[in-house]
From TrEMBL:
InterPro entries: ABC-2_transporter, ABC2_TM, ABC2_TM_bact-type, ABC_2_transport
Span of domain ABC transmembrane type-2: 19-245
Membrane topology: Multi-pass membrane protein
Domain of life: Bacteria
Family to which this protein belongs: Belongs to the ABC-2 integral membrane protein family.
Pfam families: ABC2_membrane
Protein's UniProt name: Transport permease protein
The keyword Transmembrane appears for this protein: yes
Organism: Kribbella lupini
Keywords: Antibiotic resistance, Cell membrane, Membrane, Transmembrane, Transmembrane helix, Transport
Protein location: Cell membrane; Membrane
Membrane-traversing stretches: 20-41, 56-78, 99-123, 135-159, 166-187, 222-242
């Protein structure tokens, strides 16, 4: 079985997981529609520099998809393969288990990027949310966020011995990640001390970078640097502790 065959097989299995497809691809767009139906979310706010809450929440919901894919969807699948001995059996074939890990990261990352595009499209077409004015900066921040989210998922997969444990660890990581991304309080609306702490996390930095790119600014290099550092550190930790059996 070639690496391409592994990717095709994993893609078929991924398409057969309606729960994963819903939470990663459909849920952020559905939540965007619900928030957009709230009248107060469509009113300009002086505290947000004249923006509406719905304008601020589009980058947040883009992050929700990436976090969901990284820490909730991918780890139980990989740890389930380890539990059932699939990775050990693959290690005896010409195709290395790393091909499967790469396929999972690629598929979940692609699903999250698709979800981001859906949020941007629905926001623009239905809620009149402006598209990112600094497109290059937005794409760069989005890719760095995806790298950090998937590296975090790989670390959860490395630390968890079973799929059940992966789900538990993922849930513990999931809700603080959503908070840092600004799901409950947008980062720009947080008190100064809280915001300064939050932007040191990968998703707090991502929220600020995407927000800046959305309004036409190039993301602060400090935010891009934080995301890059987290992606590198998490990847190194996952590689250090990951076991195929």
């Amino acid at each position: 079985m070639s690496t391409t065959a592994v990717l095709k097989a994993e893609a078929r299995l991924f398409r057969r997981e309606p729960g994963a497809l819903f939470w990663v691809i459909a849920f952020p767009s559905l939540l965007l529609g619900i928030l957009g139906a709230v009248p107060s979310f469509r009113q300009s706010s002086p505290d947000l520099g004249g923006l509406r809450l719905i304008d601020v929440y589009v980058p947040v919901l883009v992050l929700v998809a990436l976090i969901m894919a990284g820490v909730q969807t991918m780890p139980p699948v990989i740890t389930g393969y380890r539990e059932r001995g699939i990775l050990r059996r693959m290690s005896l074939t010409p195709v290395r288990p790393g091909a499967l890990l790469g396929a999972q990261m690629g598929l979940n990352g692609a699903a999250a990027i698709l979800s981001a595009l859906l949020c941007l499209t629905i926001g623009r077409a239905v809620l009149n949310v402006a598209l990112p004015r600094q497109a290059a900066g937005y794409v760069l921040a989005l890719l760095l966020t995806a790298a950090a989210a998937l590296a975090l998922g790989a670390l959860v997969s490395a630390l968890a011995k079973t799929a059940k444990m992966a789900g538990a660890i993922g849930s513990v990581v999931f809700f603080p990640s959503l908070f840092c991304a600004g799901l409950w309080i947008p980062v720009r609306s947080m008190p100064d001390l809280m915001a300064h702490i939050v932007v040191l996390t990968p998703f707090g930095a991502a929220a600020s970078a995407l927000d800046q790119a959305s309004t036409g600014q190039w993301p602060d290099w400090s935010h891009l640097g934080v995301m890059t550092a987290w992606a590198v550190v998490l990847t190194a930790a996952a590689a250090r502790w990951f076991r195929w059996e």
